[in-house]
Amino acid sequence: YENLEDKFIKRLDDMFGVKDCLIEVNPGKCILPPKYKDLGERIRNMEVRPDDIWLVSYPRTGSTWAQEMVWCICNDLDFVKAKSMLGQQRTPLLELTAIMGNDTSKFKEQIGNSVEQVENMASPRFIKTHLPVPLLPEQLNEVKPKIVYVTRNPKDMCVSYYHYCKLVHGLQGSFDDFCDLFIQGKTPIGPIWDHILGFWEQRDKPNVLFLKYEDMKKDLRTAIGQVSRFLGKTLTEEQVSALEDHLSFSSMKKNPALNLEPILAMMEKPALNDTNPDETFIRKGKVGDWKNYMSQELSDKFDKFTEENLKGTTLVFDTN
Ligand code: A3P
Description:
By secondary structure, this protein is α/β, with parallel strands linked by helices.
């Protein structure tokens, strides 16, 4: 990630007024803030523990949802603890310090360095990251801890990411322009297909579970069973029901440990438009919301984008 694409930076800045979030680009690989440089090497070289549980995903794929499921299953469904500690304390986002850029808020102060936070955690560690395969710790391949990878159909992912970038980065462009950047792989974190296929290729490894948002939506009970088996845990029917309740969209939306509201309130960011229901971290939770945003032409463009990139693979997404 040495190469700076000045044109791109300018374009983002002109179009969205993104100030400190998207500066460094490794074309075709990853788009991360300049601060990432300070952390990248440390992340690549960090010690991985065999009993770590990793949750890897592109942003806006339901990773908070899946991560909460993983944490609860591995912590005897301790909902009291789950509700009393922020997600970032229980299951830190590894690269958070870099993503927060120049933010000097109380929250950043509290978290300190997110990589250091993960390094200092007691085992078993629950670690979340949006980094793509080439930027993950090298030791993941040798140590082989359990890794859950979550993904989602690109149309809904893009709609969700658009709202997230407005909420967190004060993005000020049109949805159509954002789609253009998303398809070009020029949104934060970068191209989606390298990210998704990087783990799709590893889906048969015994330490990897590949999950789709649409499957969790269709049948959360089955997803809980699948994740429990992967983690070597057995839950009773009653426990599954209790977990289903804790993970329901309505519970999560009002749960301050997960809905990011306490964190957003501490961060330096544009004032929220409280009357806009889309300006929330846990927003709509639907499959097919793209239909409320995309013209036929744009939808066709996404279908083509997906078809071309998934050609030769057996990966498919539900979009309805
Ligand atoms: P929407 O913006 O489409 O509503 P991530 O946690 O990876 O950033 O993903 C965020 C997306 O997951 C958001 O999608 C959010 O609403 C959705 N989500 C979070 N919790 C959910 C739940 N319990 N049920 C369904 N969707 C959920």
